[in-house]
Amino acid sequence: DTGVSQNPRHKITKRGQNVTFRCDPISEHNRLYWYRQTLGQGPEFLTYFQNEAQLEKSRLLSDRFSAERPKGSFSTLEIQRTEQGDSAMYLCASFGGAPTDTQYFGPGTRLTVL
Amino acid sequence: KQEVTQIPAALSVPEGENLVLNCSFTDSAIYNLQWFRQDPGKGLTSLLLIQSSQREQTSGRLNASLDKSSGRSTLYIAASQPGDSATYLCAVPSGSARQLTFGSGTQLTVLP
After folding, report:
1. Which residue in the set B4, B89, B100 is minimally distant from A45, CB to CB?
2. Chain A closest CA to B61's CA: distance in Å?
3. Tens of pLDDT along B40-75?
């Protein structure tokens, strides 16, 4: 499978715990995006990498969130001291530019904070 | 700031009907517009992408149109099937990162 993969698919945690999600983009894509989606809403942009550089962060990305993309390959998103409001689907997308101009999304990680 | 709106929020139709989903955006200076499908609890599948220079794009029973000047796009689904039941999202890239701004989606149910 050459698509975008995300792990884990589901994560249940208690409030205050730290969690980390992983995204493996399509191998030749140099751009990677993280989005968050809550029930009944469209995804909202969190952050963007071009290769290993994190170039853009949304105001949604509080200090408890950190993302990395070492060596410009896979990316991780960590949430520290989780809160119930962090419960959402976290989606990763990779983008290879022309000619498709399309962002390809992974299956997402569903986070539930109890 | 770009805002994207989708109407209706939910739609239920009998199998075989043709239907139209609507998407509007506030900033007409867009690179392209993309339609996605999302099944419950799953990620997004790209259906169609219309470049800003195009008026229409077709794939099978799907046809998407774009009117930049009025800030509107429509997704036309012909001869709907129960397997078309899903949430349909439209999105436009914006900002220096070309991150996607999404509408809230239209939840479509096609009844057998």
Report:
1. B100
2. 20
3. 988 999 999 999 999 999 999 999 999 999 999 999
- Class of residue A10 by CB neighbours under 10 A (exposed 0-12, middle 13-18, buried 19+): exposed
Task: Check whether the bond before A70 is cis (ω within 30° of 0).
Answer: no
**Å from A90 to nearest chain B CA?**
9
Interface residue of A24, A50, A105 to substitute, partner B, most B CBs within 10 Å: A105
Could you tell me if A21 and A5 are in contact, meaning their C-beta atoms sit under 8 angstroms apart? no
Q: Cα–Cα distance between A91 and A103 in angstroms, integer? A: 11
Whole-angstrom Cα Rg for chain A: 13
- Distance in angstroms (rounded) separating the CA atoms of residues A68 and A99: 27
Nearest to A69 by CA among A97, A49, A46, A55: A49
CB B49 within 8 A of CB B65: no
Is there a contact between B46 and A104 if contact means CB atoms under 8 Å apart? yes
Cis geometry, peptide bond prior to residue B8 (ω within 30 degrees of 0): yes
Tell me how many residue pairs between chain A and chain B have CB atoms under 8 A apart: 65
The residue of chain A nearest to residue B105, with distances taken between CA atoms, is: A42
CA atoms within 13 A on the CB side of A27: 2
Tens digit of pLDDT for each residue in A70-104?
988 999 999 999 999 999 999 999 998 777 788 99
**Residues in A touching B105 (Cβ below 8 Å):** 40-42
